[in-house]
Amino acid sequence: MRTRLTEMLGIEHPIVQGGMQWVGLAELAAAVSNAGGLGILTALTQPTPEALDKEIKRCREMTDKPFGVNLTILPTIKPVPYEEYARVIIESGIKIVETAGRNPEPFLPPYKAAGITVIHKCTSIRHSLKAERIGVDIVSVDGFECAGHPGEDDITNFILLPLAARKLSIPFIASGGFGDGKGLAAALALGAEGINMGTRFMATKEAPIHDKVKQAMVEANELDTALIFRSLRNTARVFKNGIAEQVLEIESRPGETQFEDIRELVQGARGREVYTRGELDHGIWSAGMVVGLIDDVPTCEELLRRIVEEAEQIIAERLSAIGAVSGRDIHASA
Amino acid sequence: MRTRLTEMLGIEHPIVQGGMQWVGLAELAAAVSNAGGLGILTALTQPTPEALDKEIKRCREMTDKPFGVNLTILPTIKPVPYEEYARVIIESGIKIVETAGRNPEPFLPPYKAAGITVIHKCTSIRHSLKAERIGVDIVSVDGFECAGHPGEDDITNFILLPLAARKLSIPFIASGGFGDGKGLAAALALGAEGINMGTRFMATKEAPIHDKVKQAMVEANELDTALIFRSLRNTARVFKNGIAEQVLEIESRPGETQFEDIRELVQGARGREVYTRGELDHGIWSAGMVVGLIDDVPTCEELLRRIVEEAEQIIAERLSAIGAVSGRDIHASA
After folding, report:
1. In this structure, are strands B39-42 and B67-73 parallel, antiparallel, or unpaired?
2. Which CATH architecture has domain B4-209?
3. Domains of chain A: which residue ranges?
4. What pLDDT digit, counting tens, does each position of A35-76 carry?
5. Which residue of chain B is at minimal alpha-carbon distance from A292?
6. Are A69 and A52 in contact (CB under 8 A)?
7. Nearest chain A alpha carbon to B330
8. How far apart are CA B264 and CA B269, in angstroms?
9. pTM (2 decimals)?
């Protein structure tokens, strides 16, 4: 498949692996890029800018295809040396950066000067338009379905994507809810130039997370995610495990100590250890609504081939057959 | 366009007008059917079964195309003579019925005996499978985006539709979030045999509601709906007007009198008078998330032609161009 996205990024399939904290390591990014998609390392999964530099080099040894780096700017208690991470990205010769969280404007001049293509994640049309205005190259439109932070508007991709198609001039990627060829074909129909997948890539052979997590995703259905932290206006879609249910329980009874209760619970939880040790109930971990569409743990190569082939078949057979018979023709022959 | 839906219903375009209380009168149903879609009268908009019989006759005088009748079974304080309404539908020779609300099983034997095609609205996969099992002919899958009652699961059409495609044998219609050709093409890509539109048909010239309501929908954006009655587990997506905001305010502070406070507020509100007199803030009125995609008030004929032509163009041009270049071909030539 060839779209504006594949052309701009120099990739084979219009499928981007979304930046995922603790998951976006060289093993996964290289596997996705080798399979013809765009793999993405997450900068802040590395403890220091120097470690990111090493991870980028490690990824280069595993693939000669393009891959990108995600640098998410979030409010943190402990200051994070974002500028240092950005400098490592630029100096290492990375040509594709995914930004998320805050407005990426301060980082754009150095990125653009280095010839970097910037993909910015947005959960709303107003932020997408702002991103276009400040010079972002591609918007990744994140619907209500997505894992992690969907924002507070709760607008789904069936509304966001056609709105983006009407209002944006720059290309956009559909993100949130994608895991098969039906979704890819539908996203292209709605005007997107490709799809972003996070959760679906967690359930692949190469994802550097514990098998128990992958198995939990295979067994989960569409009802197994929850929106937590809504009362803090920092909503996150996560796997609905015991700890997520405890957070929801605290949030359902507002009170003076609510914020402290949540903080205590979450600080004790260790998201990273879910992934490394498979301790499914010991931390909060992101999962999108698409867990309901995940039934197996293929390699990235198998997954991407299957998605693209299904989408191509839908377009070439199903849609072409339906679309070939125009309403007026039926009418005339009736 | 020809799909299993158009074949089963004997219609030209795979577009069904959803049943809408106070709106599903002969004027709208006949206009939709005359435009090549399936118009639907709502039985309970008529005060008595006899009045429904007259409305069906009135609709027949306005169109010789097929149209259907919606009979929604809801818990009510005052008993509703559902069996009488059903008998009128059957005896009047109607051949397509849309059921919603409760399980339609008790009504299926008489409908089937009369050769009626039954479309049942479902907001979940488990209800869709149940509907298939009991003998419903077509499921109308209602996503989180929809106006009225989306259920309590909050699963969007980007997840529900591919799940329905995997699990159902009977054809299904995509409902909730649809208003343009992009959405139709995407719904077909996800496996639906057509789309159901409610909100979008309210903003047509023939919709028998006050112009002020139509204008409010044109001016609204995607953020102008609200989910009310969640605390009663009877969630409804409505236009976010002053009265909806008052309900949300009451729901945000749980207490002993919450239920009474809501009932008092809602009983004073007159949904019907919003539609008839254009008193936008005097009642709760349903509107789906698709209000964000509505920019004008066309005739039903213009609307349906535009949607089908846009979908056909997306399939014949955009998708065919993208799908024609297979990944392997690019790879080989790179």
Report:
1. parallel
2. Alpha-Beta Barrel (3.20)
3. 4-209
4. 999 999 999 999 999 999 999 999 999 999 999 999 999 877
5. B159
6. yes
7. A12
8. 9
9. 0.95
